């Protein structure tokens, strides 16, 4: 089977059999595409690769392409899935990727922004054009609800319930949840829908809540790019996901219980949410050092 057909069949399996999200399917397919290119360069038959050769591929990805441990772990997950697919198709008799050991993921404390920094960031968005009003509404909503960007781009107009100040979100695994949004987000959403969205949509009909200047559903890459430009202009070194991290940390700092935060974020596992308790503690320690002079020389 030629590479293109193999990848297409694998992608279909990810969605239909493994029930992966479109984003995960795209990520896994890209990883296997890189494996196939590497195999051609190394004059290796992908249908005959063993665990030792796969380990060489991972070393190439880690050392030459500078993958961190987290990304290597994701690559291994993709390899295991792909060779399971080959096994089911009768193209392999084994799954060599099952012998690969995933690196231990270091527990990284997410970066967060203070409320003042978030306010400065959102206030810096120019409002003299429809896209600026759209971005203000978008980032206000992401911050107010702790949304993933993949969730924000999937929102439709019908997912907004202004009378209850709720939004319906489809998260990982196509699981739905209802999240309340604040007054600031509501103000900008209403302004965007009334003033800016019609100018962006023109005569194109779209169910999408957030649309591009061409009237189509806004892409994740478009949001990443717009946020990066805003953050860079203010000297803020962070990616847009920091708004979600900041939302979670503020909730915990305000006394919200961990289970409630888990539900709002759409985490399947409570341990994923617990990382934000470390953020909260780290922020508190930093504030303590800043405002208690006698502790400024204190080290953990």
UniProtKB/TrEMBL annotation:
GO biological process assignments: cell division; chromosome segregation; DNA transposition
A GO molecular-function descriptor: DNA binding
Keyword entries, A-Z: Cell cycle, Cell division, Chromosome partition, Cytoplasm, DNA integration, DNA recombination, DNA-binding
Similarity field: Belongs to the 'phage' integrase family. XerC subfamily.
The protein's assembly and partners: Forms a cyclic heterotetrameric complex composed of two molecules of XerC and two molecules of XerD.
Function: Site-specific tyrosine recombinase, which acts by catalyzing the cutting and rejoining of the recombining DNA molecules. The XerC-XerD complex is essential to convert dimers of the bacterial chromosome into monomers to permit their segregation at cell division. It also contributes to the segregational stability of plasmids.
Protein name: Tyrosine recombinase XerC
Organism: Gracilinema caldarium
Organism lineage string: Bacteria, Pseudomonadati, Spirochaetota, Spirochaetia, Spirochaetales
């Amino acid at each position: 089977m030629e590479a293109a057909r193999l990848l297409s069949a694998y992608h279909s399996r990810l969605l239909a059999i493994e029930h992966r999200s479109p984003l995960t399917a795209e990520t896994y397919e890209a990883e296997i595409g890189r494996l196939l290119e590497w195999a051609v360069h190394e004059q290796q038959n992908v249908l005959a690769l063993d665990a030792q050769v796969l380990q060489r591929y991972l070393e190439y990805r880690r050392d030459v392409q500078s993958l961190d441990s987290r990304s290597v772990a994701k690559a291994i997950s993709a390899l295991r899935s792909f060779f399971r697919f080959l096994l089911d198709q009768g193209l392999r008799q084994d799954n060599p990727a099952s012998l690969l050991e995933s690196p231990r993921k270091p527990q990284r404390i997410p970066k967060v922004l203070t409320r003042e920094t978030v306010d400065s960031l959102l206030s810096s968005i120019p409002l003299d054009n429809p896209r600026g009003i759209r971005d203000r509404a978008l980032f206000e909503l992401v911050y107010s609800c702790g949304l993933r960007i993949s969730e924000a781009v999937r929102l439709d107009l019908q997912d907004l319930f202004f009378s209850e100040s709720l939004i319906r979100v489809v998260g990982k695994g196509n699981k739905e949840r209802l999240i309340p949004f604040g007054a600031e987000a509501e103000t900008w959403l209403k302004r965007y829908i009334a003033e800016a969205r019609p100018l962006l949509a023109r005569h194109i009909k779209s169910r999408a809540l957030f649309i591009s200047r061409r009237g189509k559903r806004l892409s994740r890459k478009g949001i990443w790019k717009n946020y990066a430009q805003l953050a860079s202009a203010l000297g803020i070194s962070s990616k847009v996901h920091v708004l979600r991290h900041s939302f979670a940390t503020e909730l915990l700092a305000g006394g919200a219980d961990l289970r409630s935060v888990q539900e709002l974020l759409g985490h399947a596992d409570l341990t994923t949410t617990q990382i934000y308790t470390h953020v909260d503690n780290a922020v508190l320690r930093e504030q303590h050092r800043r405002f208690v002079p006698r502790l400024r020389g204190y080290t953990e």
